[in-house]
Amino acid sequence: MKSSLSADRRLSILSRHLAGTIHKEEGGTTISSSPTSAADSVFANVVRAPEDPILGVTVAYNKDPSPIKLNLGVGAYRTEEGKPLVLNVVRQAEKLLVNDRSRVKEYLPIVGLADFNKLSAKLILGANSPAILGNLVTTVQCLSGTGSLRVGAEFLAKHYYQRTIYIPNPTWGNHGKIFTLAGLTVKTYRYYDPVTRGLNIQGLLEDLGSAPSGAIILLHACAHNPTGVDPTREQWEQIRRLIRSKSLLPFFDSAYQGFASGSLDEDAQSVRMFVADGGECFIAQSYAKNMGLYGERVGALSIVCKSADVATRVESQLKLVIRPMYSNPPIHGASIVSTIFKDRKLYQEWTVELEAMADRIITMRKQLFDALRARDTPGDWSHIIKQIGMFTFTGLNTKQVTFMTREYHIYMTSDGRISMAGLSSRTVPHLADAIHAAVTKVA
Ligand code: IK2
After folding, report:
1. Minimal CA–CA distance to 254: which of 229, 294, 219, 280?
2. Which residues of the chain have pLDDT under 50?
3. CA nearest 311: which of 132, 119, 163, 122?
4. In the annotation, is 289 catalytic?
5. How far, in Å, from the CA of 145 to the mean position of ligand 1?
6. What is the DSSP secondary structure assignment for residue 10, as one 8-state letter?
């Protein structure tokens, strides 16, 4: 009796031990085993994941008690006083929404708010776009730019014959993860030339030229993140011709419409060139930056098809992607956007506020450039005024970035990207001192 009990116990210990060995650690994924005692968590084997390379910068910044700390990590607009900005038109639209007693909080359709979708397509493609007039476009409201990219990627992984997507090198850090998790194979194409601090157009054309027919090509519509380097109009034309001649599928990420030049139409030119040729394309739009609706998570995915019939079938399948993901999108942010779009005066005011944000960023570029010149900081810093949009890709290396954080409490991504929108006239001298010290003291 005694020996049979201990045999049972041995068996149980062995099986628990074996369960404990079912422990996979792959790319940070752990599969938890059953606990060996009541006190053990079933998640005891979960490994700690690293912070996000961009949002983790803010986490570190928040922990720093220094009064001179400066967060140039995340791409979020700040006023001259260093405060987040809620646009005046957004406040006005919200008042209208709150005072409208007919408004309810019912679920939106799976594809979102119809007006918002129509007006978003118009914003990016132009009011008189033949694609819109011909009903060739299907637009679905998504969770900001990220959600729009993800829904588009999931659709492609399910319904498109070619599963390889080419993204620029470098690109926004989340792109690779979004497309990989959706089931696509991610490859890169050359984009940035660190020597000229400009576009590597030759490398780009060679890499797209050797991509397999039908491959998906991710393009930043404007204000490339993180480099601030965009193709010229002639270069866009070269890229468009190559993409169409090889039957590649363009997927535009438009997270900064209006932020590059201050003009919504100007910043949509790249997309409109591709739509004008009658070919198909995907466009992910975000209202985080240009309407300051970061936390409202408002965006749209538009797919331009070759016929109205295909567009409606594509939309029916997009619903099947969205429904099990988040069922239907949130109502508030999209209502703000459509309220602004439908009111001529508010829309006009929005363009003025948007231009003011873009102009302030351009002024910061000039001030930083002048401050470095005044300090005789070694190097050619003209890229600060040449690059456009929210970011400057400074060319500072990881060691120099670490030094600036340690000695000057300046926070930025380790690739040397700084958000110009986080800078003000008051903080420019501090940043210029830090850059000067970094390049003169750290190799
Ligand atoms: N695509 C690009 C190119 C983006 O830059 C972003 C926003 N990135 O902002 C954070 C940062 O880099 O500091 C997005 C898409 C998606 O933005 P959202 O999902 O907020 O609309």
Report:
1. 219
2. 1-27
3. 132
4. yes
5. 7
6. H
Instruction: Examine the domain organization and report whether 126 and 269 are in the same domain.
Output: yes
3-class state of residue 391 by DSSP: strand
Atom 21 in ligand 1: residue holding the nearest Cα: 145
Q: How far apart are CA 108 and CA 344, in angstroms?
A: 25
Q: What is the pLDDT of residue 443?
A: 85
Q: Whose CA is nearest to atom 4 of ligand 1?
A: 255
Check whether residue 314 and residue 389 sit in a common domain: no
Element holding 201 (H helix, E strand) = helix 201-209
> For residue 265, is it within any domain?
yes
Contact between 291 and 336 (Cβ < 8 Å):
yes
pLDDT digits (tens, 9 = 90+) for 66-93: 999 999 998 899 999 989 999 999 999 9
Distances in whole angstroms, Cα of residue 276 to Cα of each of 238, 240, 253, 343, 428: 15, 11, 18, 28, 42
Res 10: pLDDT: 45
pLDDT value at position 29? 61
Same domain membership, residue 302 and residue 270: yes
The answer to the question of residue 384 being in a domain is: yes
Range of the domain at 310: 107-342
- Say whether both 190 and 317 belong to one domain: yes
Residues 76 and 135 in one domain: no
| Number of domains composing the chain | 2
* Any domain includes 75: yes
| Cα dist from 425 to 151, 336, 348, 361, 377, whole Å | 40, 31, 28, 11, 19
Query: Catalytic residue among 207, 230, 267, 289, which?
Result: 289
User: Does 172 participate in catalysis according to the annotation?
Assistant: yes
Query: Which residues on adjacent β-strands are paired with residue 82?
Result: none
* Residue 402 burial class via C-beta count within 10 angstroms: exposed 0-12, middle 13-18, buried 19 and up: middle
The residue contributing the CA closest to ligand 1 atom 18 is: 145
Q: Are 162 and 249 in contact (CB under 8 A)?
A: yes
Residue 424 included in any domain: yes
3-state secondary structure of 168: strand
Pocket probe for ligand 1: among 146, 229, 415, 417, the residue whose CB has the most ligand atoms within 8 Å is 146
Atom of ligand 1 nearest to the CA of 144: 21
Per residue in 183-242, pLDDT tens? 999 999 999 999 999 999 999 999 999 999 999 999 999 999 999 999 999 999 999 999
CA 404 to CA 410: how far, in whole Å? 6
CATH of residue 376's domain is 3.90.1150.10
Same-domain status, 392 and 282: no
Active site residue 265: no
Residues 403 and 327 in one domain: no
Residue nearest atom 9 in ligand 1 by C-alpha distance: 75
